[in-house]
């Protein structure tokens, strides 16, 4: 699973070290050498799990699909963004995740409980 591109549809075989990576940034994180450039790329479809090659010199719009399952692998990449928030249901429907910030008033129902300000006022009389 690629952490750089959330919707990666294929893995790419690096021509320099012959290992599979989801993107060039994944290769840069794990290897000390730069990714070698080539005109023929090897792909591994994540939908049907089959490998195929594409010639990049004669790349056409029809080459954006897996030849085995027609999975459209050339799509706009969704890059993860940092978000601060709470994941949950709609608060208008289920408000159990919301914290109630209201303060419960003190109710002194006892006859003997006197507010300190009231007691001071009574002693001054």
Automatic annotation (TrEMBL):
GO terms for cellular component: mitochondrial intermembrane space. GO terms for molecular function: zinc ion binding. The keyword Zinc-finger applies. One of its GO terms (biological process) is protein import into mitochondrial intermembrane space. Keywords: Metal-binding, Zinc, Zinc-finger. Residues 1-71 form the CHY-type domain. Pfam families: zf-CHY. This is CHY-type domain-containing protein. It comes from Lentinula aciculospora. The lineage of its organism: Eukaryota, Fungi, Dikarya, Basidiomycota, Agaricomycotina.
């Amino acid at each position: 699973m690629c952490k750089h591109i959330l919707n990666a549809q294929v893995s790419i075989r690096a021509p320099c070290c012959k290992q599979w990576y989801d993107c060039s940034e994944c290769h840069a994180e794990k290897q000390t050498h730069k990714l070698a450039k080539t005109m023929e790329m090897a792909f591994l479809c994540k939908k049907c799990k089959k490998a195929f090659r594409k010639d990049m010199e004669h790349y056409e719009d029809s080459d954006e699909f897996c030849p085995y399952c027609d999975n459209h692998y050339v799509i706009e990449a969704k890059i993860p963004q940092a978000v601060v928030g709470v994941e949950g249901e709609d608060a208008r429907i289920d408000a159990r995740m919301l914290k109630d910030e209201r303060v419960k008033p003190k109710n002194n129902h006892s006859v003997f409980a006197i507010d300190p300000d009231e007691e001071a006022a009574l002693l001054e009389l």
